[in-house]
Amino acid sequence: MTDISRSGGRQADQLRPLKIELGVNVHAEGSCLIEMGRTRVWITASVEDRVPQHRRNTGQGWITAEWKPSENNRRAKYYSLTRLGRQHLEKEAANWSRLSAAISHVVRLEEA
Asked: Rg of the chain's alpha carbons, rounded to an integer?
């Protein structure tokens, strides 16, 4: 096998160091900074209780809500996933599984 040289002295099968810093944006409900080598990705998440304008009254949302009597006979709002919502959730869960497996792999390599 031919030796491949990389900048920084890494081996061909060696990943760049990975760093994940949580809570980097105090104005977002969730945030992190992911660094791998000189690449930095800033991620923020926000939560809103309204329907985005482009989805309003289209029937293409991910969640539906309906008012029904609760267990103690009070009026309550019940939420459920639509077919599109379930499909999207399954896709995102699969993406998360792949990402977490990759991170676990990197962490195991660094511990060795």
From this structure: 22
Domain boundaries, the chain: 11-50, 82-112
Give whole-number Cα distances, 81 to 5, 71, 84, 92, in Å. Answer: 50, 21, 8, 14
pLDDT in tens, 24-37: 999 989 999 999 88
Return left, alpha or beta for 36; rule: phi > 0 is left, psi -120 to 50 is alpha, else beta.
beta
Q: Which of 58, 62, 19 is nearest to 42 (CA)?
A: 19
pLDDT digits (tens, 9 = 90+) for 12-28: 777 788 899 999 999 98
* Torsion on CA atoms 77, 83, 85, 90, rounded to nearest 10: 130
